[in-house]
Design goal:
The chain has 159 residues and is mainly α. It contains 5 helices and no strands. Belongs to the Rsd/AlgQ family. This is Regulator of sigma D. Pfam families: Rsd_AlgQ.
């Protein structure tokens, strides 16, 4: 019994740490987003380009961690606990993928180039759409964490 408890904690205890680190990345993403969305002098193209580049770096890291680390762990938990989580994930995941496309398309708009004032204005128009997609994504991710990970916390602790 002690061995089962140790195995469960080793297997799933790290998931909480992974999620915590990822949520800190989300916070960093929001800081960059809010900093940029508060700008209103579009003539400062060089400074704004740097801010857009930094936002996109954090954005791509966050989205990648979700897809290649967090969701995989949540799906694995759902599979092992076999309590309907896989069906839930199958419904939510395609909606999250739609927000991923919006995020990656936004990132692709920068394309490593210097931006003109007109391009900066266009990106600010797209920034609002990105913000809406991120808000939706965060809600869905929180839902998955709550129903696929937090729901199992008691089972892991008692194993």
């Amino acid at each position: 019994m002690l061995e089962n408890c140790r195995n469960a904690r080793e297997r799933w205890g790290g998931v909480s740490e992974l999620i915590d680190r990822w949520l800190k990345e989300r916070q960093e993403l929001l800081v960059h987003y809010c900093d940029l969305s508060g700008e209103n002098d579009f003539s400062q193209t060089e400074a704004l380009t740097e801010k857009f580049v930094r936002l996109c770096e954090v954005l791509v890291d966050y989205v990648s961690a979700g897809h290649f680390e967090i969701y995989e762990q949540l799906i694995q938990e759902a599979r092992e606990f076999n309590d309907g989580g896989l069906e839930l994930a199958a419904k939510v995941y395609p909606k999250i993928e739609q927000t991923t496309e919006i995020a990656l398309n936004f990132n692709d708009r920068l394309n490593g180039q210097s931006l003109s004032e007109a391009q900066v204005r266009e990106l600010f128009n797209e920034l609002s759409r990105l913000g809406e997609a991120l808000e939706s994504r965060f809600e869905m991710e929180d839902f998955l964490i709550e129903h696929l990970h937090n729901a199992h916390a008691g089972k892991v602790a008692s194993a």
